[in-house]
Amino acid sequence: MSVYILLFFLLRFSAAKDDCTPTRCSHHGPTIRFPFRLKNHHPPHCGYPGFDLSCSPNTTSATTILHLPVSVKVLVNDIDYKSQLIHIKDPNSCFPQQLRNLNLSAAPFIAPFPQDLPNPNLSGSFVGNFSVFSCPSTPPDWERISERVTCLSGHGREVYAVNHMWDTYEAPMMRCRKMYNVWSVPYEAFYQTADLQLRWPLAVCRGCEAEGKFCRLSQLARALWVVIGLESSDEVDSC
Ligand SMILES: *[C@@H]1O[C@H](CO)[C@@H](O)[C@H](O)[C@H]1NC(C)=O
Ligand SMILES: *[C@@H]1O[C@H](CO)[C@@H](O)[C@H](O)[C@H]1NC(C)=O
Ligand SMILES: *[C@@H]1O[C@H](CO)[C@@H](O)[C@H](O)[C@H]1NC(C)=O
Ligand SMILES: *[C@@H]1O[C@H](CO)[C@@H](O)[C@H](O)[C@H]1NC(C)=O
């Protein structure tokens, strides 16, 4: 009898310690599971470093929040686990305001070129390095080579993002003042209503998701476990 009681407690204990059950911030929010985890809800081994999500404190309509290096806070609209894409937007509908602080090379995400996407039906982005200028008026000929940053323009200044692939991008034109550089972001980041997609290029688990299997980290070694069901702890070598 006591053996059964001991077994019961052992099973309960291990179940409680391994609680990586998928969750979400609100009814309409994206499911949060490996390689993501919900901070303060899932233990660290439920996700990879850099994949921590949190919920906004708004309890009536909680949104899902991702922090990107260095200090960029974005809302998560959708997570496509099969294609390894995360759809983000700026909480104030003005990404350019935050781009100055964005360093994607310190994050586990990339802005995907079309050729980086696993499915040709997904639309990729034209990724580039940009200089952002503040000008008293529209410099001649800049329509062709620049994106007007609507949400930063106004009050007598026009803000433009110029791709570094243009030779003239550093030219001090029309009393324009260079504000900052932005590295490796897609053009859409400068549009007002940007829904940006980022990809996590972790090779890990990709084949498994395509087969309808799931992954998580083992608690001890932080090695990868492939599990057939989210509740299952059966270890499988590969997909
Ligand atoms: C909470 O969400 C509701 C619905 O989206 C919104 O009207 C309200 O302003 C939000 N409250 C805060 C404190 O953000
Ligand atoms: C971005 O992050 C990478 C990796 O942490 C670092 O090497 C690089 O200097 C950073 N770039 C900028 C512009 O801060
Ligand atoms: C791409 O879209 C077409 C038409 O909607 C569909 O038939 C095809 O299966 C899709 N390809 C993939 C890889 O999803
Ligand atoms: C942007 O700049 C980085 C660092 O200088 C470079 O490695 C990268 O290739 C550039 N990207 C493009 C699209 O030019």
Automatic annotation (TrEMBL):
Pathway field: Protein modification; protein ubiquitination
InterPro entries: ATL20-22-like, WAK_GUB
One Gene Ontology molecular-function label: ubiquitin protein ligase activity
Signal peptide interval: 1-16
Catalysed reaction, written as an equation: S-ubiquitinyl-[E2 ubiquitin-conjugating enzyme]-L-cysteine + [acceptor protein]-L-lysine = [E2 ubiquitin-conjugating enzyme]-L-cysteine + N(6)-ubiquitinyl-[acceptor protein]-L-lysine
This protein's UniProt keywords: Membrane, Metal-binding, Signal, Transferase, Transmembrane, Transmembrane helix, Ubl conjugation pathway, Zinc, Zinc-finger
Domain of life of the organism encoding this protein: Eukaryota
Domain Wall-associated receptor kinase galacturonan-binding: 20-90
Pfam families found in the cross-reference section: GUB_WAK_bind
Subcellular location: Membrane
Keyword Endoplasmic reticulum: no
Enzyme Commission number(s) of this protein: 2.3.2.27
Keyword DNA damage on entry: no
Membrane topology: Single-pass membrane protein
Sequence similarity: Belongs to the RING-type zinc finger family. ATL subfamily.
Entry protein name: RING-type E3 ubiquitin transferase
Enzymatic class: transferase
GO CC, alphabetical: membrane
